[in-house]
Design goal:
heterodimer; A: 378 residues; alpha+beta; 2 domains; six-stranded mixed beta barrel; 12 helices; 10 strands; 18% strand; B: 247 residues; alpha/beta; Rossmann fold; six-stranded mixed β-sheet; globular
């Protein structure tokens, strides 16, 4: 470390009370920012669980669908029309709806039922136990072993229960990439059985899943579907639309922004004020350094180094605290909807950089204004 | 004829404008020589501190010039002026201005660190100077653990560590009791002053006048009188303890 930077480092770190207050302020602010954004991104990820788990390239849906969990039924001719479109390799229906399971103790548990195309079973989950063809067996259902699994009293192959007053038998146990947002267990069955078991409005097709012949065919498939009066969205577009719904239509995005802004203000207030006090307390000594012969750019680099060092250390500690808390929470609640993403890290980093920049600007401005003559005047 | 260390020519300095204008220096001219311990004395408000600040390149005069070894320091740009202060002039401030979070040795090493010298090497050299001022055993202590006289010695070590040609001491005994003040100035006279160094002391403490080789009287921004001090200048060719100690 260069001598002048080491001087800045020692002046900063050896003032343990101020350095601790600075670190605490930035760590707390980063932790809050990271935690709020992680929770929000976790919620967004869980909200798109069905899209991620089914994994179809193109989803055809009613134009008014805003998120994957709020499907609008489409008439059967949509499926036929899509199958005949140019560029479509194959298209299958998907059913997604809610049902009630009566448990052995007499309680009712809401579940999500996903009905897969009877022929292709497109979008089926990876099985941990059982055989996929057993889904065709009478009353056959596959249960997903995720955080909500225990809400169905941790069933095993052969477990029986009532689903909307129909007999249901567990024929397989599966895993999925992401569990749902609403904290209810997920059951997979065939499309025909799903619409048979669950009372439905006139139209039963929630989505039509489409595989294009090639990726180049996607634009023309989208145009043809639009001419039909419906919408075709790629997996990524549908996830984005679902995320947008939660960000802009539920107030979640506003809440996240408010919390992030509050964290930023807290961090800026604590670290800015403490750093300013640190500069003020050493102002005469910085003046003495100027009289002795330090150059302004060396003073500036020293203060920038102090602010950057504190900010980066606080950032690391804040991220560490956030990771630790999410890890601890997930030990107790496996479906805990918090996810540390690169976006969260980037948002936190940008915020902390702004805090460091503002704090050091205030300090630098003050130090550059000191007239070393005042040191002689005493 | 002794060599001139600092030459002040027609220095004028005022503060404020209009009715609030106060002239602190009025056509001040003098020369300070190597090998002398020059005192600038006078009552409060006579312009001593302003003169010291102008001489040391800290406060720009409104008129006149200051030549340090024939260089007009107020014609230098900011960086060169800072370099001149760092390399040619040592400062002992009235309130010491030591950093409480650094050790005594680190405080004394600051000018070397500002000269971009290696940290460890700077601290080692500073410890040599602390030995000269009798504080080697306290090198690792923070300044707050030292007495006022000891802190003054640290300030002297800090001023001397870069081996400046000119040492400027601003009210060096203001924070010290009479005995300590005497011992500090006696130490400076015996160990710091040499034929190759000029020491300028601003003071109004008449208990230490005996260490001056020459005394300039200031009053109302003017130099009013010059008198020979009680002390004699060191022999030509003599070296101070600091020079011997680091040779």
């Amino acid at each position: 470390m260069k001598g002048i930077l080491k001087l800045g480092f020692k002046l900063l770190v050896n003032d343990k009370a101020k350095f601790s207050a600075l670190l605490l302020g930035i760590t707390f602010a980063v932790y809050l920012m990271m935690f709020v954004t992680s929770m929000f991104f976790g919620v967004l990820n869980h909200a798109s669980a069905n899209i991620i788990n089914v994994g179809s390239t193109i989803w055809v849906m009613d134009p008014y669908v805003q998120s994957v969990s709020n499907s609008v039924g489409m008439p059967d001719y949509v499926l036929d029309a899509v199958r005949s479109m140019h560029g479509v390799k194959y298209a299958v229906p998907l059913y997604s709806g809610g049902a009630l399971v009566k448990l052995a103790d007499g309680n009712y548990q809401p579940v999500t039922v996903v009905g897969l195309d009877d022929t292709s079973l497109l979008g089926r989950p990876a099985l941990l136990e059982g055989k996929i063809e057993d889904i065709y067996a009478q009353s056959g259902f596959i249960v997903v072993r995720d955080a909500e699994f225990s809400k169905l009293e941790s069933p095993h192959i052969g477990s029986e229960f009532e689903l909307n007053d129909h007999r249901a038998v567990i024929v397989g146990i599966a895993k999925v990439a992401t569990s749902g947002l609403y904290g209810v267990p997920t059951l997979y069955t065939t499309y025909e059985r799903a619409i048979e078991y669950i009372p439905n409005p006139r139209y039963t097709t929630s989505y039509v899943l489409v595989e294009p012949q090639s990726m180049d065919d996607i634009p023309q498939i989208k145009q043809q579907v639009e001419r039909l009066g419906y919408r075709a969205r790629t997996k990524e577009e549908f996830m984005k639309r679902t995320e947008d719904f939660y960000i802009y239509k539920t107030g979640g995005g506003t809440n996240m922004l408010i919390m992030t802004a509050i964290s930023f203000i807290i961090g800026l207030s604590i670290s800015g004020q403490t750093f300013y006090t640190f500069i003020l307390e050493n102002l005469e000594r910085f003046g003495a350094l100027k009289a002795i012969g330090i150059k302004s750019r060396d003073l500036v680099s020293m203060i920038l180094f102090q602010a950057t060092f504190t900010a980066l250390t606080g950032y690391g500690m804040g991220v560490g605290a956030c990771v630790l808390l999410i890890w601890l929470a997930k030990l107790r609640l496996p479906s805990y909807a918090a996810m540390l993403t690169y976006s969260s890290l980037a948002i936190g980093f940008v915020m902390v950089a702004i805090i460091a920049a503002i704090s050091s600007y205030v300090g630098i401005r003050k130090v550059l204004q000191i007239d070393p003559f005042t040191i002689f005047r005493g | 004829m002794p060599h001139v260390a600092i030459q002040a020519k027609g220095l004028v300095k005022w503060f404020g404008e209009g009715e609030a204008k106060t002239t602190a220096l009025k056509d001040v001219e003098f020369e300070a020589y190597f090998g002398e311990m020059l005192y600038i004395i006078g009552p409060s408000g006579s312009g001593k501190t302003t003169l010291l600040s102008v001489l040391s390149g800290v406060l720009k005069p409104n008129a006149g010039s200051v030549l340090v070894e024939d260089i007009d320091i107020w014609k230098l740009d900011t960086d060169k002026l800072a370099d001149l202060r760092l390399n040619k002039i040592g400062f002992v401030f009235q309130d010491f201005h030591l950093f409480p979070r650094l050790t005594t040795a680190e405080n004394a090493a600051i000018p070397l660190i500002l000269q971009k010298r290696d940290w460890n090497e700077s601290v080692r050299e500073a410890i040599n100077y602390l030995e000269i001022v009798g504080l080697k055993g306290r090198a690792d202590l923070p300044p707050v653990k030292l007495s006022g006289g000891e802190q003054q010695r640290v300030a002297i070590a800090r001023a001397m560590v870069s081996k400046p040609d000119i040492l400027i001491m601003d009210e060096p005994t203001a924070s010290l009791d009479g005995d300590t003040g005497n011992s500090i100035l006696s130490f400076v006279q015996k160990n710091i002053l040499s034929a190759n160094r000029c020491i300028i002391v601003v003071t109004h403490d008449n208990r230490i006048y005996e260490f001056a080789t020459r005394i300039l009287h200031m009053e109302d921004g003017r130099l009013t009188a010059t008198e020979k001090g009680a002390a004699s200048a060191p022999d030509k060719g003599s070296a101070s303890a600091t020079e011997k100690g680091t040779a």
